[in-house]
Amino acid sequence: MNRELTPSIAPEVQAQSLLQSGEAARAIPLLQQAVRRQPDSAVHLSNLGLALCRVKEYRRAETACRRAIALQADYPEGWNNLGNALLGQEAFALARSAYREALRHRRSYYHGWFNLARTEVRLENLQAAHRAIRKALRLRPESNNALRVLAEIQQGLRLWQPCMESVELLLVEKPDDIELLVTKGS
Q1: Any alpha helices (H) in 40-170, and if so which ranges?
Q2: Nearest Cα to Cα of residue 52 among 89, 2, 97
Q3: How remote is the C-alpha of 104 from its chain's centroid?
Q4: Quick one: which of 76, 79, 154, 162 has the fewest CB in 10 Å?
Q5: Residue 3, Cβ neighbours under 10 Å: how many?
Q6: Number of C-beta neighbours around residue 63 at 10 A
Q7: d(CA 74, CA 60)
Q8: In whole angstroms, how far apart are CA 28 and each of 32, 93, 116?
Q9: How does pLDDT run across 124-174, given as a tens digit for each residue?
Q10: Bridge partner residues of 173 (DSSP)
């Protein structure tokens, strides 16, 4: 989509429109301009982080989001966007912490639950992922993305169930430690 930018409209408003239409690269300079005009705006910094994530500039996104939450520590969108930047850098445990912090500030935050579920999947914690995606779906039952993630999680849980039923764990005591042996059942 090739939109002409209107000078009379504030850059952050134009940037928001571009972000919503999938034009993050064009939104970045406008958000940078908005941050220069209002350097203490957690919203502008967080939106800059979001736009940078969308163009896969995760380190710069992390910096912008950390500045946003330093200005406003109870801003869930800032924490969520920080989680996205960390997830993009494959810092899964840190991303999980950021999403949890977003949810601490707003329990009814769909994006926080959705992104926490995706992160728990990456951490191979399917039970926690299942709980998180179900909370996201309670907030937005029509979300196709959340339904797709739920299906993936349920498939993963079904794959693990028979495996866990056929495994016997034997503890063999040794003088200095305990060794865990895993054997398949019949």
Answers
A1: 42-54, 58-71, 76-88, 92-105, 110-122, 126-139, 144-165
A2: 89
A3: 14
A4: 162
A5: 11
A6: 17
A7: 21
A8: 6, 28, 26
A9: 999 999 999 999 999 999 999 999 999 999 888 876 554 444 433 433 433
A10: 178
3 state DSSP class of 4:
coil
Please tell me the total number of residues recorded for the chain in this structure.
186
Dihedral, 99, 105, 108, 111 alpha carbons, nearest 10: -30
DSSP annotation of 168: E
Q: CA separation (Å) from 86 to 75, 123, 127, 144?
A: 17, 13, 22, 24
**Distance separating alpha carbons of residues 140 and 150, to the nearest angstrom:** 13
For residues 155 and 60, what is the distance between their CA atoms, to the nearest angstrom? 35
In angstroms, how far is CA 156 from the centroid of its own chain?
20
Phi then psi for residue 166, to 5 deg, are -95, 5
